[in-house]
Specification:
Elements (H helix, E strand, L loop, with lengths): L1 H9 E8 L6 E3 L23 E2 L10 E3 L4 H18 L1 H7 L18 E5 L2 E5 L9 E4 L4 E7 L5 H15 L9 H8 L14 E7 L8 E7 L10 E7 L2 E6 L31 E7 L10 E7 L3 E4 L1
Parallel strand pairs: 2-4
Antiparallel strand pairs: 1-10, 3-4, 5-6, 7-8, 8-14, 9-12, 9-13, 10-11, 11-12, 14-15
């Protein structure tokens, strides 16, 4: 209740999306298409592809937008979405998150060991010559650890991917405050930027005992009479067994917070409070612009309850 009170004192809901019905939703104007990411209209670029407002790999099968052109759609798929998909691959496999090609198997590089779902359930094939254990059991502690090497990814690209989702559901009138943010996610070389950003951290929650029935996301907007130094907008995404929360960076209305201590409130899990067993929230640092290779992802499960380690 204290967390909810603090959030209510500082924020109000600006955008809310709940994909709890099979009906397709299209954001934007079908007749007056203009890309909000590059600024070009239908006379300057093409809008032939159906653009997912948030990626399909976060179980979005019904939310699309008219304001993302084909060029930007293809670019973000290669420069942002593939990084987040690589970061979450093991988790998505275990949680049976269905993407464009179905539930992803987990197999990295030339390794023969793999994790698959089939009609019999979860199948783990462990090959000795890989010299890498996907699954380890501790009978004394009654725990099972499933781990694997992530495909190469860049942390800041994962944060940009989440930011792009926020910009996709943001109301049109607010975009004027995020021109630099749009320019930032458009930078294809993550090692070279016109913006020096630090402390790009996300709240990440893995819920091992319960699953979100549908994907939802929302943006909270700072109240004019807010009581603390808080970012102008924060973005929350919930899908499958995972929650992500970030602040939306480079907002014009956050300039007064430069060199000040800023408070980031963790939004309670929408399925229940953090005291619910099987829920663990972590803060993950996504500031780095370096490509990360052979990063180990681990999921720890006990015989009676489960936690995750990222």
């Amino acid at each position: 209740m204290d967390k909810l009170k603090a959030i209510d004192e500082n924020y109000l809901v600006s955008s809310l999306i709940s994909l709890n019905e099979p009906k397709k939703i299209f954001l934007g104007d079908k007749e007056k298409k203009k890309c909000r990411f590059c600024g070009k209209d239908s006379g300057e670029t093409k809008f032939r592809k159906i653009a997912h407002a948030i990626p399909e790999f976060v179980e979005n099968y019904t939310l699309f937008s008219y304001y993302e052109c084909d060029c930007c759609n293809e670019k973000f798929s290669k420069t942002l979405e593939n990084h987040m998909s690589s970061y979450m691959n093991l988790h998505h496999s275990l949680a049976r998150v269905k993407g464009k090609r179905g539930i992803p198997s987990f197999k990295i590089g030339g390794n023969k060991s793999r994790l698959d779902w089939n009609t019999e359930g979860l199948t783990i094939q462990q090959v000795a010559e890989d010299n890498f254990n996907i699954i380890e059991q501790n009978e004394k502690n009654k725990t099972v650890t499933i781990k694997g090497k992530r495909a190469t990814y860049t942390p800041i690209a994962v944060f940009k991917c989440l930011t792009k989702m926020a910009l996709s559901i943001m109301v049109e009138d607010e975009l004027v405050n995020f021109k630099n943010t749009i320019n930032w996610i458009n930078e294809e070389d993550h090692t070279k930027s016109n913006y020096q950003l630090g402390n790009l951290k996300a709240f990440f929650t893995f819920i091992t005992k319960q699953k979100n029935n549908y994907t939802s996301c929302f943006i909270l907007k700072r109240r004019e009479d807010n009581s603390n130094n808080v970012p102008y907008m924060i973005f929350f995404l919930a899908y499958s067994q995972f929650n992500f929360q970030i602040h939306i960076p480079l907002c014009e209305l956050d300039k007064h917070l430069f060199n000040k201590q800023v408070t980031l409130y963790a939004i309670p899990n929408i399925l229940g409070e953090d005291i619910f067993k099987g829920i663990e929230r972590k803060i993950i640092d996504l500031t780095s612009t370096e490509r990360i290779k052979d990063d180990i992802a681990e999921v720890h499960m006990s015989y009676r309850n489960s936690t995750s380690s990222v």
